[in-house]
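Support case: user asked for a sample of complex input and structure output to validate their parser. Sending the pair below.
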Amino acid sequence: MTIQTIPTAPIDGQKPGTSGLRKKVSVFATPGYLETYTQAIFDAVSPEGAVLVMGGDGRYFNREAMATILRIAAANGVARVIVGQNGILSTPAASHLIRKRKANGGLILSASHNPGGPSGDFGLKYNIANGGPAPEAVTDAIVACADRIDRYKIIAADAPALSNLGEVRFGDMVIEVVDPVSDYATLMEELFDFDAIRQMIAGAFTLRFDAMHAVTGPYATEIFQQRLGAPSGSVINAIPSEDFGGGHPDPNPVWAKPLYDLMLGSDAPDFGAASDGDGDRNMILGRGIYVTPSDSLAILAANAHLVPGYQIGIAGVARSMPTSTASDRVADHLGVEAFQTPTGWKFFGNLLDAGRATLCGEESAGTGSDHVREKDGLWAVLMWLNILAVRKVSVATLVKEHWATFGRDYYSRHDYEGIAGDAAAELMDALKDNLSSLPGKSTHGMTVNAAEDFSYTDPIDGSVSTGQGIILTFEGGARAMLRLSGTGTEGATLRVYLEQYAPPDTSHDLDAQTALSNVIKATSELVQIEHFTKRKAPDVIT
Ligand code: G1P
Ligand code: ZN
């Protein structure tokens, strides 16, 4: 097959954010854009003879993009691409496949929870041989290649369809189409006590899983309905669609409101959960209760030893900086290490590889373990189900008992979306300039103890990541964290994360916004949020 070398120009704005490169579909579909970025990845990672995994969340443009990527992969000497049937792989399933098949890396086509469709978002992420997102050294190398690129190589023939299982040759490359679900479902059976969960479901226990018209539909149907015996209809919105049914596939109380309302209403099943576009996020609910992702991480850590895959105990718990400190107290109680990393799953990779952390979590609905190197929505749901099957209590009881033992971290995230890029930068710059003047300041009954521009030194390889957000610590166990989103595709998003600790012997029954009202007011004033954003209130509160 003929290999063409096509001249191209460096692409702008290509710096990968928190999780791969995300852009509007219209940008990725601009002739030459996807081709150039894909070539930049291959220039950075030496593809000759490589085995790669490829898959995506089924969103609009995935099929076209995969056809193009396969042509570029073959032209660059890739030996084999293992791809999910019809291009489908959830992000955790792709991570598992990279590890299981000892691939050199993988390409994940997804913009996670961002909306899909022709006017929606698209994304491309490179994962390394451990199955996890490329660390900064690799993403920086990709950026450097994209900055100086002047050509891409592509096979002058159409790539084969990905609808039939099995192997096909494409030039000198083999394309192997695999079932996207089976290896992943088998891994879940190895980690969890499916018999115990099956028995619980065969009893009176009811559950509802909302796949949000996204990639987990087929996985959840196979696992919950086929293998665990939940009645049909337990998994809803189970057919993936290219635009996620017109929705915003982000499993939180705002975007998964129908499930949230069901679980807080009078007809609630015992357990509710949802996952996002590419299957790595999760939302957990019980009858009458929403579990914050920060609490979920802490509760899973405290109970992990009840689950077969973790019965020897956990080595440590890692959380992203803005995630509440609830899991730190559990780690302390268990006598294991607690880590605070920058936002983004890639920062957990080294800790997991080195066996220093077993469980990891982010406040943004990401929870996972050392079974793969991505966060994993269905894994989190199965952890909860397995723990409930052993403990034989309701979600609400489990959560309240946890608070009674460890105390409660009231938590909320306030997002100011689509603000002008300069306004966002000015706010952060002003905050950094004023940082040293903040300790000792008091307002709305809150006194600042410390103000820090968070930087992280990886304990395994010593790499340093600076400018990872601001942490304000207040007297009395409250924190406020501020950072700019690295995944948005329009304007800038300011994220303000707020937490207030309530010790075991105090009330845990307040509404979160009420419990946080002083830290919210103090932070708004100290940071002058309204002055910079011109917004009186956040756009999204979760
Ligand atoms: C967001 C979340 C972050 C997560 C990332 C990818 O990034 O906040 O925790 O790792 O999506 O799912 P952000 O937009 O805040 O940069
Ligand atoms: Zn995701």
